[in-house]
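so my prof wants the structure for this chain in the tokens format not the other one, which i didnt know existed until like an hour ago. anyway here's the sequence
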Amino acid sequence: MFHTVLFPLDRSREAREAVDVVINIVEKYASRLVLLSVVETDSPNAEEGMASPEAVAELLANAQELFSQKGVQTEVIEREGKAAFTICDVADELDIDLIVMGCRGLGLTEDGASESVTNRVINLSPCPVLIVP
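here's what i got, hopefully its the right format
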């Protein structure tokens, strides 16, 4: 059912909390797992420290090691651009069956929620999106 799963990462608590869900899905469906992190160099609201290619490379290496310790093989992709658009572009390019990502809705105003990366991915994704609270 979910042959290829995309897990976009950042340094958020929500992304860390989604790891167990990702592992469960990948194991259950024997899925290929692709980890993605986006360098947002031109965004004034770039994730803290995620505007640096070095920080992204370190995040991906750490995540790959974590999944490896759990017996899950991964592929990693690092891209530059606007997070939501880049996530959806990669999902389309790789024919992804499912995107799993953490939710960051708590504490946002109504305007902030509509501008969130998660909300944009939900609206633009070429495949199903599972949001982990």
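also thought this was worth mentioning. The chain has a mean pLDDT of 86.
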